[in-house]
Amino acid sequence: MSCTIDQLSLHRYTEKDKETLAAFRLPDEQARFTALPLEVLEADEGKHPIVITYGQKPVGFFLLHTSERVKNYSDNPQAILLTALSINHIEQGKGYAKKAMLLLQDFVQNEFPEYNEVILAVNHKNIPAQKLYEKVGFRDTGRRREGIIGEQYIYELAVV
Fold first, then answer.
1. What does the alpha-carbon distance between residue 129 and residue 81 come to, in Å, rounded to a whole number?
2. What Pfam families does UniProt report for this protein, alphabetically (predicted)?
3. How does residue 2 score in pLDDT terms, banded at 50, 70 and 90?
4. What's the rounded Cα separation, in Å, for the pair 132 and 84?
5. Could you tell me which of 7, 77, 73, 13 has the C-alpha nearest to residue 44?
6. For 23-32, 111-120, 133-142, 149-158, which range has the lowest pLDDT when averaged over its residues?
7. pLDDT confidence of 29, banded at 50, 70, 90?
8. C-alpha closest to that of 50 among 37, 68, 35
């Protein structure tokens, strides 16, 4: 199942997405905060790759985690963790990330109905990502954790 807004949709990764995702590029200042899709695509239990598509073309990607890893970020047993959000560099500036995050609540409700919260960690230096998440309804929990490249803020979004 997919959720759609203005020709932008979210769907679970399929093999037909692989070739386009392999061509994704990110500028260095963004690559230090996230991973390219093929770097994190390996199948692990509890890891769900999600593709952001405009029309029929993949333009972005993220992971949703339902594994034990979630416990590093939340005490809520019904929380799902979002990581590795990226929009292909040549597709940036078109509002795709914002629209994708606006679809997130409905997508989680439909695809993962047992979860009532999305959580994520955003680097304290990644101001554009913080602003994006806040615009679409995430809130800073006040919790912090140390990441690979510094302090991370833990954000949450209720799924209602």
1. 16
2. Acetyltransf_1 (PF00583)
3. low
4. 14
5. 13
6. 23-32
7. confident
8. 37
Q: What is the mean pLDDT of residues 117-125?
A: 96
117: left (phi over 0), alpha (psi -120 to 50) or beta: beta
b (16+ CB within 10 A) / e for 77-103: eebbbbbbbbbbeebbeeebbbbbbbb
3-state DSSP call for residue 22?
helix
Q: How many CA atoms lie within 13 A of 78 on its CB side?
A: 12
61 CB neighbour count, 10 Å cutoff: 28
Sign, CA dihedral 40-2-130-81, equals negative
At the second CATH level, the architecture of 3-158 is 3-Layer(aba) Sandwich (3.40)
Domain boundaries, the chain: 3-158
Largest Cα–Cα separation, the chain = 40
Q: Flag whether the pTM goes above 0.85.
A: yes
How confident is the prediction for the chain on average, in pLDDT? 91
68 — alpha (psi -120 to 50), left (phi > 0) or beta? alpha
Any idea how long the chain is? 160
Indicate whether 3 pLDDT > 80: no
